[in-house]
Amino acid sequence: MTLDLLPIGQRARIVAVDWDSLVAEEAQRLQALGIDVGARVAIAHRGIFAGHDPIALMIGRMNVALRRAHARAMTVEPV
Fold this sequence. Notes:
Blueprint: E1 11-17, H1 24-32, E2 40-46, E3 55-59, E4 62-66, H2 68-72, E5 74-78
Antiparallel strand pairs: 1-2, 1-5, 2-3, 3-4
């Protein structure tokens, strides 16, 4: 399942990231925030307008706003 489909509050582990589908600078920024294979994450909130952008991602004690396209590039497994 991709991260954009994860239910709100469900904890998961990132098992794969399609870095080639992202702009290099954006991929580098996400990796600097710790969003990479093995990271444990959960969806805190989704935007309320069409497309539900952005997605608020909890990683550790941080909340990070992601575009839905970025979340779609990440494969997760529930934990």
